[in-house]
């Protein structure tokens, strides 16, 4: 227990050190360009069907501290980012066979650990768009940049699986002390579809600009010549 607390403290310290700088931009590396396309960016939210599968492919915490001390990876509904639903728990070990695999059933509100055949988590059913998170201790990263600590930087990457329209590799990283980037976790999730960046906000600004121009033209017409 004491060793676990020490490891958690060290990992949290590394995360906070990585976040301590201001003004940096993060580019999560593509781990295998032969299998995954470039990072699509996007809003950090995704649509889904009744069933989604997840595979944990890389966990730096497990590699560094041992298989029972990894990151927790999961999802949240867009309207409630404070309620985090676990897909892979911190104790799920992807460093040795079998590969970590989970199924999310949005019609029944269940997450099933497929490699162990047990119920992983439960949640209230919804068809709402989802985002993904990565957590260790009290440090949590989100695919939605605005939810991330220390300035709301984009700390995740979304890489489409080549040859498949609905498979995406979700990666997380943070800046290291040498000015580089340290990838910390990658999970493959499908079938999901990235949500489009909302258009109404941009349309509203466009309409506001047009109305402002019309008002300016009316005022100009009233000015004495």
List the helices and strands and how they pair.
Elements: H1 2-19, E1 46-59, H2 60-65, E2 72-77, E3 80-88, E4 100-105, E5 110-113, E6 118-122, E7 130-136, E8 139-142, H3 149-152, E9 156-160, E10 168-175, E11 181-194, H4 200-222
Antiparallel strand pairs: 1-4, 1-11, 2-3, 2-7, 4-5, 5-6, 7-8, 9-10, 10-11
Keywords:
globular; four-stranded antiparallel β-sheet; 4 helices; 11 strands; 225 residues; single chain; alpha+beta; disordered N terminus; seven-stranded antiparallel β-sheet
Describe what is shown at a glance.
The chain has 225 residues and is an alpha+beta fold. The chain has helices at residues 2-19, 60-65, 149-152, 200-222; strands spanning 46-59, 72-77, 80-88, 100-105, 110-113, 118-122, 130-136, 139-142, 156-160, 168-175, 181-194. It has a seven-stranded antiparallel beta sheet.
What does it look like?
It is a single chain. The protein is of the alpha+beta class and 225 residues long. The chain has one domain (2-198). Helix content is 23%, strand content 36%. It contains four helices and eleven strands; from the N terminus they run αβαβββββββαβββα. The protein has helices at 2-19, 60-65, 149-152, 200-222, and strands at residues 46-59, 72-77, 80-88, 100-105, 110-113, 118-122, 130-136, 139-142, 156-160, 168-175, 181-194. It has a seven-stranded antiparallel sheet. It has a four-stranded antiparallel sheet with strand order 3-2-7-8, with helices on one face. The longest helix is centred in the C-terminal third of the chain and has 23 residues, at 200-222. The protein is globular and about 45 Å long. The N and C termini lie far apart (84 Å). Residues 1-10, 17-24 and 198-225 have low confidence and may be disordered.
